[in-house]
Amino acid sequence: MTQRTLVLLKPDTVSRGLVGKVLDRYEAKGLSIVAMELRRITAEMSDQHYAEHVERDFYPDLREFVTSGPLVAMVLEGDDAIEVVRGLNGATDGRKAAAGTIRGDLSLSNRENLVHGSDSPESAAREIGIWFPEL
After folding, report:
1. Active-site residue identified among 116, 117, 118, 124
2. Against a cut of 0.70, is the pTM above it?
3. Class assignment of domain 2-130?
4. 53 is catalytic
């Protein structure tokens, strides 16, 4: 089943010069880029994107991190794109993510975990609408 998903290459991916390396993993798995843009996220946009986390204890640090520098926002498309991206990304905590995943191989911490991928078709639709309303 062809799906679309939102992927964010977070500020640590950009600052560490890993955008090409991470993007190559998605493309090598057969995913196509539908839209891609280098941009900065505002605090308000962070609150909208991470709405389900705003009241959680960890959220202020997450918001500070994602607003700290440029990131790459993109929509990827392919067979079971949501599941494929989440498998490539690995566990949220990079210290616990399996070797061979983006986070397992490249992440330095739990907070600076390089990437975000939509977790369901509903989340993908909502997140793509926030970042790429023209799609």
Report:
1. 116
2. yes
3. alpha beta
4. no
